Amino acid sequence: MARWIDVEVDGARARFIVHDDLAPQTADALWEALPLTVPVRHSTRSGDACSAEFSTPALASLPARPEVNAASIYKGWLAVRSSPPRECGEILISYGLAEHRTATGRKQITPLAELEGEGEALFAALRRTHAEGEKTLTVRQAANQ
User: Fold this and answer.
1) Which end of the chain is less packed: N or C, by CB atoms within 10 Å?
2) By the 8 A CB rule, do 5 and 114 touch?
3) What is the tens place of the pLDDT at every residue in 44-62?
């Protein structure tokens, strides 16, 4: 059964479909953490993407390697990276050309949810973090599921 999440930054909201079939354990861990309200900032090393750290006990049970080994993140995708055995992780949302990178180089990440419909207002809000700095990211289970 499909699940959707609503993602909001700076008043701009978009709906994403969670691809449980790609990464069921990571999808369940994110779902368990919702709703989330966390700081989001431009991910300087990753290109056109913003990142936000979050924590939930379910992240600690994920495998050390991502369920899907991806580095490139397509526009309109939300990806998750966990740091087992710790209960912390990172959400990365791409608004253009992006590849997950840290100070030590390219890192693998699990693409998890894809934008459904129009996302330009959300992309503009994410893009503004580059010049304006940190904003608030809210991720919640979509209503009417």
Assistant:
1) N
2) no
3) 889 899 999 998 888 888 8
